[in-house]
Amino acid sequence: MGRDGFATYTGSWKSPDYEVNEQGKLVGGYQPTGPTNWGRWGEQDQRGTTNLLTPEKLVQAARLVERGDVFSLALAIDAHGPRWPARPAPNHYFSQTGADFVVGSPANLAMPGFTYNDDALDMPLQGSTQWDGLAHIAVEDSLYNGYWAGNVTAAGGASRCGIEHQRDAMAGRGVLLDMARHLGVERVEPGYAISPEELESCCEAQGVEVSEGDMLVLRTGDLQRWWALESLDDKAGFFGASPGLSRRCIPWLADKDVATVSADTVGVEVIPLEEPVERVFPTHSAALVDLGITFGEFWVVDELAADCAKDGRYEFFLVAPPLNVPGAVGSPINPYAIK
Question: What angle do CA 136, 142, 146 make, to 5 degrees?
Answer without folding.
Answer: 110
